[in-house]
Amino acid sequence: MGNSKPQILLHICCAPDSTAVFERLKPEYEVMGFFHNPNIFPEAEYKKRLEEAEFVARKLKFKLVVPGYAPEDWGHAVKGLEAEPEKGKRCDVCFRFNLQATAKKAISLEIPFFTTTLTISPHKITEMIFNAGRDAALKYGIKFLEFDFKKKDGFKRSLELSREMNLYRQNYCGCRYSM
């Protein structure tokens, strides 16, 4: 698309997390955002987070791809795991669900790499996210780039940028079971 930087599709879980991640990726990659979060509940919360992600995409000047909201697909994927604790099997299935969708979208857009903002959170297990990304990459024949965005004060930087942009910061991961 006019420059020599490789393209990367960035799975975005929420606007605050996308800020510092985009800032870190931009020097080396042409970043396209992918807001795939059918796990977010209720729908009003999904819409609020989407509006914020769209705001950040406009402000930081990157394209944001948004598939339709399909919470029933996610519900089917985690069926039977409703009582699992946070950071447990349900979260693993959720990461896999979202990262497989990201890998498939990257292929359809002919983007050679994908990654996720999920690793910026100190509340998530990075190795679980990396395993989900690796498996999605293997399944779909695409390259998952493993970045632990919380390193080098990534989470702190996302807090700073969120304050500067006056972004909404949610107080739960997103699914009905994490409320």
Structure explained in plain terms:
The protein has 179 residues and is an alpha/beta fold. The chain has one domain (7-170): HUPs (Rossmann fold, 3-Layer(aba) Sandwich). It is built from six helices and five strands; from the N terminus they run βαβαβααβαβα. Helix 1 packs across helix 6 (154-165) and helix 4 (89-108) packs across helix 5.
CATH class division: Alpha Beta
Poorly predicted residue ranges:
none
Largest sheet report = 5 strands, parallel
CATH architecture classification: 3-Layer(aba) Sandwich
Assigned CATH superfamily: HUPs
CATH topology: Rossmann fold
Distance between the termini: 41 Å
* Largest sheet, spatial ordering of strands: 3-2-1-4-5
Helix content: 40-55%
Total helix count?
Answer: 6
Tell me the β content.
5-15%
Characteristics:
179 residues; 6 helices; Rossmann fold; alpha/beta; five-stranded parallel β-sheet; globular
Summarize the structure.
The protein is an alpha/beta fold.
Write the layout of secondary structure elements.
Layout: E1 7-11, H1 15-25, E2 30-34, H2 43-60, E3 63-65, H3 71-77, H4 89-108, E4 113-116, H5 126-140, E5 143-144, H6 154-165
Helix pairs in contact: 1-2, 1-6, 4-5
